[in-house]
User: Fold these one by one.
Assistant:
Number 1:
Amino acid sequence: MKKFFLVFLIAIFTLSINAQDSQKAKYVFLFIGDGMGLVHINATEAYRAALKDKIGIDKLNFTKFPNLAVATTYAADRYITDSAAAGTALATGNKTAVETISMDYTRTKKLKSIAQMAKEKGMKVGIITTVNMNDATPAVFYAHQPERSMLKEIAQELLTSNFDFFGGGGLKGIKNTSEFLTKGGYKYIDTKKGFKSVSSKDQKVYVSCPIRDESEACRYSIDQTSDDITLSDITKKGIEVLDNSNGFFMMVEGGKIDWAAHVNDAGAVIKDVEAFDKAITEAVSFYNKHPKETLIIVTADHETGGFTLGYAEMKYNSAFKKLKNQKISLAVMDKKIDEYKKTHTADQAKLEDLLPFIKKNFGLGLKGLELNEWEIKSLENSLKIEMMNKDSKANYGKVSEPLSSTISIILDQKAGLAWTTFSHTGVPVMVFAKGQGSELFKSYIDNTDIPKNIMQIAGLK
Amino acid sequence: MKKFFLVFLIAIFTLSINAQDSQKAKYVFLFIGDGMGLVHINATEAYRAALKDKIGIDKLNFTKFPNLAVATTYAADRYITDSAAAGTALATGNKTAVETISMDYTRTKKLKSIAQMAKEKGMKVGIITTVNMNDATPAVFYAHQPERSMLKEIAQELLTSNFDFFGGGGLKGIKNTSEFLTKGGYKYIDTKKGFKSVSSKDQKVYVSCPIRDESEACRYSIDQTSDDITLSDITKKGIEVLDNSNGFFMMVEGGKIDWAAHVNDAGAVIKDVEAFDKAITEAVSFYNKHPKETLIIVTADHETGGFTLGYAEMKYNSAFKKLKNQKISLAVMDKKIDEYKKTHTADQAKLEDLLPFIKKNFGLGLKGLELNEWEIKSLENSLKIEMMNKDSKANYGKVSEPLSSTISIILDQKAGLAWTTFSHTGVPVMVFAKGQGSELFKSYIDNTDIPKNIMQIAGLK
């Protein structure tokens, strides 16, 4: 009888453990829209509605998620954070100093990321980004360095991460990415044809956008053609490679949302938010097949630009549809200006030379987008400053060209949108959650609570 | 036997009804921070932490609530709403045209408010605001008018509302408020002594702030002394009057948050958000006594000002503590300027005359708040414009005085805060919820969903 009772107790115990386990998320997606504040999301939705001549919003897929939290983003040493400190918070659940890659604020202690915890647990891991793979946001998931600028050291840690899938941008500061990765044990692919052939049979694979800029980032969505691979393509491929019976953790960064916001380029922001949303629908498709085992989180590391749906001179009016006239990113406009600078002296430079290009690609001068005297003067002045400046692009994808900035600011303001800074802000960010355990995401939380919840839901740590 | 079965059925039916009823919220608080965006909240919290020399936030009480949603605010006819259309959405669950007080967008059909539904159900109703009681936000709960400017018609509807408690601002556009209300069957009190004597024995009572401005609004919290009554005082008194066994509905508006944001006065915004939070603690105290029967919602009708925690020239830096130097609202600064204009001609006017007052009350010129050449020039120029303008204050509490605006903008920017407009914006607002049924408030919703949820939770309609 005593023995029977013991067996009974063990049985109950086992059952309760199994019951707990069956409630854990086996497949975890963490989507980070870099710099994507509430306004970046809402402006995209308002623009989509405006295209249909509707007042209101045309919802993105991730904003339909059933659960939502709002998270503060401040770093240990500065209220306005950067992608390194905010990424460390999202990857490890710890506040740290700005510029720091998954180390504590004294920069002496390494902090384990949820991606590394997942790997240790036997799950597969994938890291995807539209910018360079050794940029801060992807780096915090596999590297530990006191400075985000230590690009080579970060890339070296990628090799030893043993993660299963890397996709998107290349490695900045590495002379021969292909050789570096191949020697390090990764299969490297950066052609569209090669991309298509990657399959679930591949292990330790690194797929790169076939077209990348000088920073090794993929192109802005607004500039992409059928020659590019999209964030959605990469996410779908990543799921294919990672899907296995032990589960997986996947981080997907919409990194160019931040870069577009740094130059106050609303048109490019909107297209990259839409591309980010499309990538999320790949995760939702996977969720639909495994609803009880999948968790999807969509958040941001910080807000960039102090972006707002209202501009003083427009008062209570908006005209979001005007952004439809923008055909290219400011990065492409910059290239045009660089060419012009090579063939013209400061004395020769005339705004009229560039106005047809500006009209064609940003709509300025078209009906409803007429340029007033003050705006013409602003453009002329910025061209003058432009011609005095021999340098072209600043680093970090930030446009130094005053003419591009002026074009964008004029167009955005005519659409009823405004910005307060070219930097990040301290504005808290949204957290949208769907799937197993997602009800933990509610109320007004801190960014460090996000990975803590994920650890609990996925049984990590 | 048949008879016994019938009795049994009735008993079961009654039990199930009671079970449903016991899950309904009997006491409903709806707090509306007019113009209070996420940044107005977060800036207040960041400022409070900065006062303690901490980087981060010192949480307000309502941001600790367990449930949260984010709500879009657009009107039927304009993306950027106003307090009339947004208020109608919050009070009735219907989108309408801007300027409209609880009527549909054709302005022909009256829309019943949740306050009126509560009254019909036998609950007591209280309406509280820091601005005039016939302003749009309070009006939408008791009146139905095609234009928010129809102040007399709105006030007339207040008399026939039969609501139990009105508190805060006076009635704008009514010659003798006391006579108007007394004849209309309301006990009217506008002294501090009288206020203290109001008790649960009073029925149909209207208490007004003893000190009100030309718009019949209570003073900004930053300007209040012990001669004033606070929003918290009024809320506490309202609970005392309304508390009864049939339950109550109470709407409390922090109206001056919007007015301060319209003039981009961060110092006044913060003090009014704190006063609003303090009023909410009165509801939380009541909740603690009736946790299963009380629902508290804290939201906003729209964002005002395009307020952001980051300013271009400050780049990644913030210095929130500098706002501590602000001692008065811009409304009081305006009065000082008006006095100056009466005693000086345009030729006589010198910035130096006003600088000591500006230094004393906004800190400009103190260590850490030194004025640079460009800032001095801005102040001088705005004084010049000031002196050409014979008019003083614009209506709607909006400062027309360019000098006040310039002072505020300089101080806010030095603190690392920025604004994009003097109008409302289309930025979605927060919804914090606590108590019975509050778990319905989650995800990304529309402002019309808020009263729909309340109707369901409180069993209205």
Number 2:
Amino acid sequence: MKAKKEEIARLIDSFEKGQLSRVDFEGRIADISADEAEIPHAIIDLGREERAGFIEAIFGAGKTSEQVQKIFSAFVEKKGRALATRCTIETIKMIVSEISGCGHDNRAGIVWYPERIEPVLETVTVVAGGTSDVPVAEEAAITLEFGGARVERVFDVGVAGIHRLFGRLELIRKAQVVIVTAGMEGALPSVVGGLVSAPVIAVPTSVGYGASFQGLAALLGMLNSCSAGITVTNIDNGFGAAVAALRILKRRNQ
Amino acid sequence: MKAKKEEIARLIDSFEKGQLSRVDFEGRIADISADEAEIPHAIIDLGREERAGFIEAIFGAGKTSEQVQKIFSAFVEKKGRALATRCTIETIKMIVSEISGCGHDNRAGIVWYPERIEPVLETVTVVAGGTSDVPVAEEAAITLEFGGARVERVFDVGVAGIHRLFGRLELIRKAQVVIVTAGMEGALPSVVGGLVSAPVIAVPTSVGYGASFQGLAALLGMLNSCSAGITVTNIDNGFGAAVAALRILKRRNQ
Amino acid sequence: MKAKKEEIARLIDSFEKGQLSRVDFEGRIADISADEAEIPHAIIDLGREERAGFIEAIFGAGKTSEQVQKIFSAFVEKKGRALATRCTIETIKMIVSEISGCGHDNRAGIVWYPERIEPVLETVTVVAGGTSDVPVAEEAAITLEFGGARVERVFDVGVAGIHRLFGRLELIRKAQVVIVTAGMEGALPSVVGGLVSAPVIAVPTSVGYGASFQGLAALLGMLNSCSAGITVTNIDNGFGAAVAALRILKRRNQ
Amino acid sequence: MKAKKEEIARLIDSFEKGQLSRVDFEGRIADISADEAEIPHAIIDLGREERAGFIEAIFGAGKTSEQVQKIFSAFVEKKGRALATRCTIETIKMIVSEISGCGHDNRAGIVWYPERIEPVLETVTVVAGGTSDVPVAEEAAITLEFGGARVERVFDVGVAGIHRLFGRLELIRKAQVVIVTAGMEGALPSVVGGLVSAPVIAVPTSVGYGASFQGLAALLGMLNSCSAGITVTNIDNGFGAAVAALRILKRRNQ
Amino acid sequence: MKAKKEEIARLIDSFEKGQLSRVDFEGRIADISADEAEIPHAIIDLGREERAGFIEAIFGAGKTSEQVQKIFSAFVEKKGRALATRCTIETIKMIVSEISGCGHDNRAGIVWYPERIEPVLETVTVVAGGTSDVPVAEEAAITLEFGGARVERVFDVGVAGIHRLFGRLELIRKAQVVIVTAGMEGALPSVVGGLVSAPVIAVPTSVGYGASFQGLAALLGMLNSCSAGITVTNIDNGFGAAVAALRILKRRNQ
Amino acid sequence: MKAKKEEIARLIDSFEKGQLSRVDFEGRIADISADEAEIPHAIIDLGREERAGFIEAIFGAGKTSEQVQKIFSAFVEKKGRALATRCTIETIKMIVSEISGCGHDNRAGIVWYPERIEPVLETVTVVAGGTSDVPVAEEAAITLEFGGARVERVFDVGVAGIHRLFGRLELIRKAQVVIVTAGMEGALPSVVGGLVSAPVIAVPTSVGYGASFQGLAALLGMLNSCSAGITVTNIDNGFGAAVAALRILKRRNQ
Amino acid sequence: MKAKKEEIARLIDSFEKGQLSRVDFEGRIADISADEAEIPHAIIDLGREERAGFIEAIFGAGKTSEQVQKIFSAFVEKKGRALATRCTIETIKMIVSEISGCGHDNRAGIVWYPERIEPVLETVTVVAGGTSDVPVAEEAAITLEFGGARVERVFDVGVAGIHRLFGRLELIRKAQVVIVTAGMEGALPSVVGGLVSAPVIAVPTSVGYGASFQGLAALLGMLNSCSAGITVTNIDNGFGAAVAALRILKRRNQ
Amino acid sequence: MKAKKEEIARLIDSFEKGQLSRVDFEGRIADISADEAEIPHAIIDLGREERAGFIEAIFGAGKTSEQVQKIFSAFVEKKGRALATRCTIETIKMIVSEISGCGHDNRAGIVWYPERIEPVLETVTVVAGGTSDVPVAEEAAITLEFGGARVERVFDVGVAGIHRLFGRLELIRKAQVVIVTAGMEGALPSVVGGLVSAPVIAVPTSVGYGASFQGLAALLGMLNSCSAGITVTNIDNGFGAAVAALRILKRRNQ
């Protein structure tokens, strides 16, 4: 048990000196916690976010619920806020029951604290074509809100029913940045890009079957968009799109 | 020279007995003609078209101008009409200068006779997203007209400027079949499919660069269309889409 | 509980005003039902089908049995009929035990109501090469019957035993549209396309192993068919092929 | 000759009414010009740019030198400026010899007028890893300058000699947007993205051989960047990246 | 000049001792001949063919006409026969004008000596679907004849006109081995394999366009054949299929 | 229950008249048996095997243990022998416990009856590179023995330890046909093909990880073999390779 | 039971005579052990390692815990050391509880004996970009230590935070060989390769999602590295990289 | 003209200060030389090679003969040696006629100075399977000799004639590093890797056709080699393999 404590102390040391990245710090703490060690919450503290310019999130995939919960708690205690993505429902339940005041979205696999963060940045509109794209869209939207942006959600506007998009144009046009998630053929960003002059970030989703090849069809579609000036993220990477939008918003305010 | 005549006689024989397909007949005549033999035009005649139910065309790719011209002439003489696709400009020039009364389209690589065929079937609307898709769209449109269909062309309606599509909706909606050609991300058929109830045949084109991978992006996009009931042809296959539409129109009239 | 009711009321409102697509409406109702809310069946009602020109189906994949059942019931109650595709056996059992008078096919994963719908449209022949392709072929056939078409099933005619196909030619030739499903090398549509003059819609299935790459081999085979005028749908998309056929049949009757 | 004039008049008409997109307008004028018609320069004029929010460029690929030159001249005459991308050296020579005051870059295949445009927007830094990536980087840089942005070029900083990048950090960090072009393994955007907080747009180039698969390796590398918030364009799409950056800069100034 | 002679002598030495493969021997002689050296024909002689059990051919691709001609002449002089594949028309012309008594096929790119070889082995039937597949089929057929097999050619039997295949069944069934070449969707081997009990070797050809991906569609189709017991060669590899058939025929006669 | 009996009677009827293939017959019987119907074993009997020239096997994948067992029993009862491939261990156990005198191989997933079949054909040598390839090799070997061939197994000869192959050369060279299974880089057939003059059939296996892409690397390796005259089957298709070898052996004996 | 003993005796015999490879020996012993046979540990002994020049490891994937444990024990007993890779946690637990003095790493799936091996070779530095790459990096590191190398681990240095790499340069530069593992875009080896003159072996990992395509992105990135002289192994092949490094170190000492 | 001189002076300045990489320096000089500027040879001089630890080469692809020649001359003048790869025959001729004492290899596209460099490092054996792989093998061999290594060439040992490899084993085994180039199925490195204990670097070549997919088959084959400890370079990257070998040899001597 003592060995673990020493190891933890050593890790924290390295972390504070900048010799250890947050990702690695998290990983190692998580490893130790797998063996039931206590995470010494009191010592997590660093000015990383300010320097790096974008928000830190706990990537929940491949970690046990207990591991995510412990790191999440440490963030909450020391920094007053935390965001965990790609969490299982079990993980979310564990965190929510442990820490009061969390927000969570089961379909998107996200939990965050505090539930409500005052928006200090401008508006990003997040568009989703179909219901199945909503988890990825919510990953983007919640990350944005956590990062201080205002978010408008426009979620019921697929290309197959393009008339509905037009009813929402005002909402879309008032955004500083538009994030568009779509699966299957990934055509929605092209349509949106032709209608607004704001930056458009396209997120292909793995929604589909057969020749969608887990999002490849949507990805290629977006890269070949006939609307100029659209940029693309990895498949299902709502978080990445949100960080890209936050980079834009924050740069404006410097 | 005699051997050639005998070979030709033998070929015609086989062809009339149905032992030799038109494609093979053409190929062999073309081979012989490459050695300067005369094609005995007078003997090409068969009831194939009525039986097979769709139009015959000379596939110009991989044949010399002279070969295509000779076969084209034989068709004109015996059947009173002919259609050749994927021709070089040289081929078209040679045929047009040889036979008066031909129609031709240099960009689409098509030449046909007679220039004007009275439409006896209903309307097919051929939609093209961008100027670069027009050659494929024209391959479809001319094939349709040659096969007896009325054709409406709606060629200036890309997804990136979707509002223009709406001005043409009446034109599109009056069609019995809609053929939509598009390159790059191939999104146009999804949009059209959501707006009309007629059958929609999507033709991906090889227009694009980089991650369009010579039409693969458009092909995958169309196969994954979120509008139900859209069917797809091979890349750049305007001819095939037209034959599919003619199958539909002709079946109605039986 | 009240919040849910209000949310439901709001959703219905949006749905009736056309601000919300059926797909999204379904998705949201399903989300709420996941939390045990009652779905207010009485209020689902809209003229969508007539406008859009093709049938509506519940896509069962990714929904719980209870969710599908609730939406299915709502359709039955309000519209007098319902179709759900890609259902698990559990879902089918739940619906069948709940609502008397349903038809169902376990292998195809489909359940529909009422069991028998009077055909009002012409005949579509659905061809399947092997036993493994039958679920996809049945997805097409049942969708067609649900949409009002007469259906002939020709299911025991693989390319490896091509003589059997010839015994069925009359059956195939009397169709207004032919749908051909095939896995592995996907050669059947080419053969059928050379024998009939009706429109042929090819559906690649994911049947196979190794270098079939989950249906890619069949898809490429069909796109490159040497029979002119064959069109193709996404892998395993029997529903899409049926809707394409219904588009053809319905357009004829307008 | 008269028919052509009428056709041109008709095209202009459609164009001014917004029934014809600029792309299509260009294409049709180019077709006609191929037959030696005069382009009536005096009538090209529209408020498109202001509405669409980004610059219009002539896509030179697939057009003859004469066609590009005529359209370019029309733009210059009516709008006082023009930009043509993907031009051959012959095209550039023809334009430059015809119109005095043009800028041009042979390696990037770009010609523009007037040579110097006063920057009214903030700074975008364009980074290129190797000499071979410079043409794509210049396509981005010149497009940006044409669109009114200030541009800093940082062109000699490959990942294999990462120390050189550090000497330029100040230059990179002062940008509002950073565009990074790279071929081969496409690693440079990840490195840059970890060093700056501004939005980073990554452009994969087709530079490489063997398993670079014409830019696919770089494209995948950038999509999977371990630096959060990087977005990607199509392979070799420097123009698209520039338009994306202009969308960001212009939105700030609204 | 002396150095070359010595080098040649050294090569022959190595070749006769079995230290140098024929392929390498050829390559090096060809290199030297590129510098106008004389090939000492008199010394090429080896019992390789008997040992290895299959015929030797000169692979003409990537060699100059003169190089192929010199090696061909050496074979003729010493072994009394020679076969060169993948030759340009120029190469064929040069050889044919140099050596009397050669057979040649311009479309297949093959030249051989002597023109007529007495068949000593049983019959192989070579089937080709379309005219475009004939060059590959002829590469197989001529290689077989050169190797001593009787060959039946059945070249006008595509899947799209399957009835013609049936008229030839007797011809196909009398073969000891059947080689089937086909491009586009590559379906013909499946059909043939279901009709005959002899070994069937399938050769995909690169004939096609768009989603044929240079023969990939045909290759995948054949590997997934639903007829059991079909084996496949590389795309366009008619020579390899012939050698495989000769392995079968020769093994029978041992 | 009566309906089922009638259905079964109808199926048998169709089967005996040749209107129903064995595959489909099997499939339908299996479907019915899923509902606990009795399979009327006494009536399965047909001369198919003699006509088709190769053995019939039950493809166990995707069938329940009970279904495979019932069909297997029917074969045993009526034809005196049966072979089932791709069976789970549960299926094998059920059959073995039900029918005495079966042979079985758990790793290869095969069960057959009777355990020992007298060889009447010549020798096929089945070569496997590594232990992991043995299940596929055994699928081939057992199918061959079931079909009447003599089989030599040479299973411990990978390319990485090529010297061991040489100790077995006599064994390999005495075969009339050689089947070579290999995963990973799939190099073994090239080596064997250079050492023997008999026909060589290569079977790529899905053994490997990472860039083996489930057997794609081995498949491509074998198709590009530098040993002439090697033919290839689908990935893991030991059964197909055996049928191809039986086609060769049986043709010899006609 | 007796039959098994005899079989085992026969296997050992073959193994000692070099007729049976270790891999096959293992596989067969494992098969027998699956049927509860005793493995006669006392007889495993051979001079293979010295001859082959690199270490032998038990590949745990696809073997039961019991099988791996028995082979491991045999190695320990006879050779005094053993290494098993790709083991499940269950396998590791079983071995560790059975044999005292083992080292093990659960995340890397490795167990070895004895825990500490005295380094006799020079230093290899193993670099890992992110925490997720550590299991592959540890597979390399532990294999190296087992093979007698000194190992330096540099695990917290991703490209996104490149400054941390520079703090470790001394550590990296003192290595005789550097192994760099990285997932996602796989950029780290390029950076390291530009900073050190030692041989750099790059190991792509399957870490990532979406367009990482299970390590393909990282693999392509590394193959296209702009740093000259970097070589690459299969995806996740830490063991292979270690053996490659040991080949270098051992060759030096000969 | 003066502007150019100043620009050149500026470039040299940057280059000497290390602000400009050699690659970029070359590129810019080449650009200027395209406009007929004089390259001031006298000033190229830097200690780069000693620092970076591997040789510098001029990459000839994409440069004009004149550009390569000028840079080559500058290297010769200032450093006393030069190496240019991927040169056209024209480039080689120009350099050879300009500078006496060069070595050159037309097939490999390489020219170097001085013709003979005294070997100071140990032996690398370069193995090539077929004649077509020799250019890539020579790229490796000449680079090695230029870098100071002794080189043994073993060029006539394909997998299809594996016995020839064995006659060369002593030659291969005496190497400190073995480089193996192979196209088609890329099997040779596996065989070599099983026979020697030295480090083996595999270079896939683009030799092949059809399903070789320009070297992809060989690349995948080598990555999946069943011989442990083989590492791989990009397709056709003989230069990279040589640099990797030099990294090994030089590290030994430090």
